[in-house]
Every structure is written in C-alpha cells, then in structure tokens.
Amino acid sequence: MRAVFSEIWGLFVEDGLLAIGLVLWVAAAALLVPLLGLGGFGGPILFAGAVLVLGASLARAARRG
Known about the structure:
Elements: H1 2-12, H2 16-35, H3 42-64
C-alpha cells in the first residue's frame, strides 16, 4: 500500500519545490490582489507568477540534469 501511495504522490508532486512554490504563489495572490484593489488583474497576476515559478523550477532542473 505504501508503494501505491508513493507512486500516486509522485504523479502529482514530483518536484516538491515546484508544488510548494505554486501553492505559496496562489496564496499570496489570493491575499494581495484584493488587498491592493487589483481585482481586474487577478488572473494575469496569478498566471505571470505561476510562469515565473515554473521557469525557476525548469532552470533548477536544467542545472541538476
């Protein structure tokens, strides 16, 4: 059972820092966009941050590999 759980977990969270970074970015955007009154720009801000987190993860993987 542990092996099955490990495989399923690996499917969704292969790179732990990527997952943590995305969760933190979504939380930060959810808090800051309404606080700063940027409601109309919430989607683009969320997208841009996710792209930056993904780019950082890819750069890290390229250095590793």
